[in-house]
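Q: I have 662 residues here and want to know how they pack in 3D. Can you give me a structure?
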Amino acid sequence: MQSQENDRIVIVMDDTDAEGTFGLAVDVSVGAEGFEIRRSDHLGYKGLFVLACDESGAMYGVLEVAEQLRKHGNLLGVSECIINPRFAFRAVKFNLPWSSYRRNESFELQKETVRGLDFWQDFLNMMAENRYNVLTLWCLHPFPYMIKPTNFPKATPFTDEELVDWKRFWTSLFQMAHDRGIETYLINWNIFVSESFREHYDTNAVSDETFYHHGDYYSTEQIKQYTRECVTQLIDEYPGLAGFGISVGERMNGMTPEERQDWIADVYFEGMKNAERAVKFIHRAPFSVDPHITRTAIEKNETLFQPVWVEVKFNWSHAYSSTKLLMTHGGSEGMEGYWDPTPLNYKITWMVRNEDFFTLRWAQPDFIRKHLLDNGHDYVGGYYVGSECFIPAYDYSHAPGSPHIQWTYAFEKHWLYYMLWGRLLYDPNTADDVFANAIERRYGKSVGRPLLSAFSSVCKMPMAFASFFSFSWDFTLYSEGFLATDKSEYNEGKAFISLEDLLESQPLDPDYLSIRSYVNHFIANKPTEGYVTPVQLAGTLENDARQGLAALASIGCGSSSLCCEMADVEAWAHLGLYFAAKLRAGVSYELYVRTGNEAEWQKALQWLEAPNAVKHWDDLIRVTNSHYVKQPLLHLGKMPFSWELFRPQVLEDIEFVQKVKR
């Protein structure tokens, strides 16, 4: 039953299994997107009520009741609670496969899937269920796929009929998101134009190949006019679009920080101002660190919708490293100027980039909780979760026809990853029982706790790896592959992080000692208290892996899809054991080099050979080959990825140690 009273909506449903009724009502004491579950007399009804002040809060409250109903079986088991979202901005970063920032087969494979509204219906359902409220869509230059620019009609390569199809797609997508309490933002890069624009309006432009990616700036008054008018027209033609975003720095080499910000103001700020309605705005922090220029431009602009969301990459492209902010895009010196002093009309939004694991499932709730606790300052509006190099749509990693594939899309395979981030961003106090119960709904009783515990143990490996091995941009680390693909020889299969690479690396986290620094301390008999040494890290990795494998051993492989999840846990465990053995080999090798102690040389070989490092990598190959195939990986260019392909490099470490005595 539904009634309306003084602008308050009440929905009442009879429940014959419980005393009273279940209802939905407005409660002004609950914040935006929050809800209260209460047992009381309300508006003439006695029973269980969900109270909220907006539709999103009501939706989340009903989802909470449904979740508890699945657990308890009736309304009597539903607990009273008041929950308000911890962060107002809870976003997924989704890179589009057309006009994409990166080019690779892994993106080409996604075009058909991502164009389908069936995919988006399922993806948006997942977002709503997990309490995400922002979808950010990223591509270099979206305008030709969305509008025919009034003064530059030939800038789009599509016919009128094709544009009608595109517009139907975008309009439906934005509406579907809105219906689920999700705001959609388009984020583009800057001084890019379409190939059709260059062909018809700017024949002096540089070639496609050099124009494609980042590089020296190229701008004309015509380009500025075209982009400005596209921004205005896009906003006016798509009332379902909630916001717009820009990235300061791409194709702006050679411009001063002031010139870059002036270009943004003259083009994007002005284009938004000229639109018939205001939209929300994401301003990506510039790559050149000069916070004063950017924050002044934002804080003195009275036309921007407030708050402006200022996006900052947390630990550059590898947020799965440390919960401590140790660097941002381009480095971290001076970045605190964005939040000190406290911003006036904008909020920092942390970009949690994942360029470290695309294939193996990851679940480590305590890392997320600590991240939110350590970095949820008053000036922080929220988080983005996503990748630059992986689109979670068509799943090309699995062997076709495998019986364990009980999902359609890649994000469904990584369901627990999205659930953990979304639910904890909404409420960091969400207990592990919620996630364990979700596992049991999929795989049966007695599975949830041990499987979550196993994931939580072994999935510490990538953070430990990234804290120990220094990185910067996307391709400088790929943790699940033990790769650093920015090396010039990666196309020859040399992306693998060798023992020599490990010896020469410096930790990202200053609390960690490198192998050589540790050996220096050891030889000089200097204390290492307060540091994480390579030996300590190896012990922790081994303990985590053994605990994860022990938890797996208590689970029966009741279904093929459960076996698939368990195989990923086992793979992470073998990666952790491999890393631990390699660290120990590195310490022994360096001790031999420094002291000539023959026993240390022997130990280095033993740690690298079977039954240690080689055995762990062979176990990794065995478990991953059981359900994964060679697959495209943007980090590797045209070279496919599998763990088996890098076994020769695992053996080369042994030869490296042997050569030191020749």
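Q: Anything worth noting?
A: The first strand starts at residue 2 and ends at 5. Confidence is low (pLDDT under 50) at residues 1-20, 208-212, 488-492.
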